[in-house]
Design brief:
This protein is an alpha+beta fold and 818 residues long. Helices cover 45% and strands 18% of the residues.
Length: 818
């Protein structure tokens, strides 16, 4: 059989003049470029039959219409199974499949419109099937696992879909009336609750799994927030919503926050349905994810990327616009502070590691597209875009984007296409050079501020020695005696900026307005003065930026752990919940780095703060942190009392589940009774299913833990990927080190398989869950030994490991320097 395939392949290559590389598994760039030159006017007429039992396969039929400029082979992508028989232009033909490609030789095709009909059986790979519902998720290249297609983003097509489903099931299908890429096509089927609405002429429909008064009471707000996002996008772009209906599907255990299928946007239930007393963070998060997916209807759906190495170029628009939409809807919230917390802080946390990479990356085959996804493309890109807007001018940016959208209306475009459009809008802004540094080079600057000989010196240092200068603007605050202060605006067009001062400042606060991107450092005398400024800095954004600067310097070893005393004092008075959450996160990191006895003291200090800062947001944030973090018996007693009462309106069922997991792990003799009680208190089958899956990781028996870990390596056992990650996080809990170090070599050796058998964020999140509870030398040695031994490891995966172990490496470095 193998010989026969290669003979067929040889004949195909001879007749078509095609390089053999295009027939490798996946979709190679060579194949994509060859097809885009010859194929157009594609349509799919699809029928799927969904059986009532998971033991039976999903089957279907497809009719593909495609126009060929020249008579050549037609190469379809398909990972499922089919008989080999199909109908091509009205005649029954037998064709071959080579490396997941169906080859229809040119002797069966013709110049002009061709029609291909075939029956097929889908793989379950991207179908996400459950006993009474299912949903498809094809991003970035998984449509070919479900039906024969041209699975590349620049071969847009229209879709017509019919789905045969069991009685009582509802369906929702992507709007395929306008041409869209295959990765944006989707369908959902199952037993769902349904609600419809009309907002500002937009027809809206939502499907969700479980009926409850708590959820249904939130539906009007969800519709309102979607409508607000649509209205803002239409006003900003000057274009009406490009799709007829705004459909939403809210799914339990969903892999992503959301996915932008036009007319059938998928959302995680944890992001959309909030608890009884949601935090401000949770409210903002819901608005941001709705705004993000709504912005994608223009950026990603209407105008799509040409190739997935530009995947970030659709995400940058979505988050950039989402931040603006959220700013309008939550006008009383400090927009700059929320932008910092949502995007910039997360981007810096990755960009400072050895595993960072340029925003723009090369991609040779769609097989590897999922490896491109991380916080660089989601969080650094909106930071970059905002800086670009400040250089270009806000009006120039908006007009340029409008021209870009009209030029590529229901077409495909690249980042360079946008840059050229914006350049024409304002040629003097120099955005081509800006893009070369910010987009095409990795990393970020270390920005040092000092006072020398009557001058304020601000210098950028490229940590990779390339001499790059990241052009940007930000403010520095100079503090003098007698309460005097001065703000200095810095425009870093060159690596060093020098400003003459009349007198020496007593204090310097860098990046005062948060507009600068990088790690900001100071001379020692000024660094030591920073914590004292926390209690007297009244502006909330400035206070947040001061916190970040202190914490960045703590992670660099420039500030000792003892500064937590100022954080403690700050927490007792803090009123802004976003800042409060940040302080709690910082204190938790410091506590984690401390020896066990000192950690217990700091945990108790954090808990005692609730007696002084009586704001509900403070209590909620501290207890939620302790539910994943506490080790001291005294704090665990507090946690146990709250959990056992189960009547605090600040906490929802997931909060109590989290408390139960931590208590069960830290009190192994009570593990069974704690878990049994928690299960009895759960009110829905959905929550019980999740709890039964995750709570297995609390078992104190080491053999049971290892058995569960080995099960998680099998993709069949992690169909709810967030649940699998939660279980892994509990197995790798900090209090279980060093016994859980055994999971590190096994995880790293299986990493490529894990990446290949999961969705786009899973490998990143697996590594985070694996390493975040570790701080031992042994854990770091295991990781570094693997990196040194596996010389064939893909660069993408190597970078992800380096990102995950960065905190562990920094902890060991600082311990060695003590």
């Amino acid at each position: 059989m193998i010989l026969r395939y290669w003979l067929v392949l040889l004949l195909c290559l001879t007749s078509s003049g095609i390089n053999a590389q295009i027939f490798e598994k996946g979709v190679s760039k060579e194949l994509a470029e060859l097809r885009i030159k010859n194929l157009s006017n594609i349509s799919y007429d699809l029928t799927f039959t969904i059986p009532s039992t998971l033991k039976e396969n999903v089957t279907g039929t497809v009719t593909i219409n495609v126009f060929l400029d020249d008579r050549k082979d037609i190469v379809l992508d398909f990972q499922g199974s089919f008989s080999g028989a199909c109908i091509v232009n009205g005649k029954k033909r037998v064709v071959e499949t080579i490396n997941e490609h169906i080859i229809i030789p040119k002797k069966f095709t013709k110049g002009g419109m061709n029609r291909i009909e075939m029956n097929f059986t889908s793989q379950d790979k991207a179908l996400n099937r459950h006993s009474d519902y299912m949903y498809t998720l094809f991003v970035p290249d998984q449509a070919r696992s479900c039906f024969p297609c041209f699975d590349q983003p620049d071969l847009r097509a229209t879709f017509s879909t019919h789905i045969n489903v069991p009685e009582g099931w509802k369906t929702m299908v992507s709007d395929g009336s306008n041409p869209i890429p295959t990765y944006l096509y989707s369908f959902v089927a199952g037993k769902f609750e349904e609600k419809t609405a009309v907002r500002d002429r937009h027809r809206m429909r939502i499907l969700y799994r479980e009926q409850s008064p708590e959820r249904e009471s939130q539906l009007p707000t969800i519709f309102d927030e979607a409508s607000q996002a649509l209205k803002w996008m239409e006003e900003y772009t000057g274009l009406s919503c490009p799709f007829k209906e705004y459909g939403m599907v809210v799914l339990p255990g969903y892999q992503f926050g959301g996915m932008e299928h036009p007319g059938a946007i998928q959302f995680s239930d944890r992001r959309i349905f909030l608890g009884t007393s949601p935090s401000l963070d949770e409210k903002l998060s819901r608005m941001e994810i709705i705004a993000h997916e709504t912005a994608h209807l223009w950026f990603g759906d209407m105008v799509s990327l040409r190739w997935f190495e530009d995947v970030w170029a659709k995400e940058v628009y979505a988050n950039f616009m989402a931040s603006k939409i959220t700013r309008k809807q939550y006008s009383k919230i400090d927009y700059e502070l929320n932008f910092q917390k949502t995007y910039q802080t997360r981007a810096i946390a990755l960009d400072r590691t050895e595993g960072t990479h340029p925003i723009a990356q090369e991609l040779k085959n769609l097989n590897h597209a999922s490896l491109l996804y991380d916080d660089i493309i989601y969080d650094k890109t909106p930071v970059m875009m905002r800086i670009l807007e400040s250089i270009l001018g806000e009006n120039h940016m908006r007009v340029g984007i409008q021209k870009y959208l009209r030029k590529y209306y229901f077409k495909n475009a690249s980042w360079n296409d946008l840059i050229e459009t914006l350049h024409q809008q304002n040629p003097s802004a120099g955005i081509r050079q800006f893009s070369e540094v910010w987009v095409k080079q990795k990393g970020m600057p270390v920005i040092h501020t000092s006072y020398q000989d009557g001058k304020l010196i601000v210098s950028q240092n490229d940590p990779y020695g390339r001499g790059l200068c990241w052009r940007q603007k930000f403010d520095i605050r100079l503090i003098y005696d007698l309460g005097r202060s001065r703000t200095v605006s810095i425009d870093m067009r060159e690596p060093v900026v020098s400003i003459t001062l009349n007198d020496r400042p007593n204090g310097i606060i860098p990046n005062y307005n948060g507009r600068g991107y990088g790690v900001f450092t100071l001379d020692d005398a000024y660094i030591k003065a920073l914590p004292q400024r926390l209690m007297i800095t009244r502006d909330e954004l400035n206070r947040y930026m001061l916190l970040q600067t202190i914490f960045d310097n703590y992670q660099m070893g420039n500030v000792p752990p003892s500064y937590f005393g100022e954080l403690y004092r700050c927490m007792t008075k803090e009123r802004n919940p976003l800042i409060m959450q940040t302080i709690i996160d910082h204190m938790a990191k410091i506590a984690f780095d401390l020896p066990r006895s000192e950690r217990a003291t700091l945990e108790q200090c954090m808990t005692d703060i609730m007696a002084e800062n009586k704001r509900p947001e403070c209590r909620q944030a501290i207890i939620r942190k302790m539910a994943t973090f506490a080790t001291s018996p005294e704090v665990l007693d507090v946690l146990y009392t709250i959990w056992n009462d189960q009547n605090d309106p600040l906490f929802n069922e997931h909060d109590y589940m989290e408390m139960a997991y931590r208590l069960a792990i830290l009190r192994p003799q009570e593990c069974d009774s704690i878990l049994d009680k928690q299960r009895q208190w759960l009110k829905s089958d959905q929550l019980r299913e999740e709890f039964d899956y995750v709570s297995r990781a609390c078992n104190p028996d080491e053999n049971a833990q290892r058995t569960l870990f080995n099960q998680l390596l099998n993709p069949e056992n992690r169909k709810h990927e967030p649940w699998a990650l939660h279980a892994l996080r509990l197995l790798c809990a900090d209090v279980r080190e060093p016994q859980n170090n055994v999971y590190i070599p096994a995880s790293l050796e299986s990493l490529e398989y894990i990446q290949q058998t999961s969705d786009i964020f899973f490998a990143n999140n697996w590594l985070t869950a694996l390493f975040e509870g570790h701080k031992s030398r042994e854990a770091l040695d295991d990781a570094e030994k693997f990196l040194a031994s596996d010389t064939k490891l893909q660069e993408y995966l190597r970078n992800k490991i380096l990102i995950a172990i960065w905190p562990l490496r920094k902890f060991q470095e600082q311990n060695n320097n003590k």
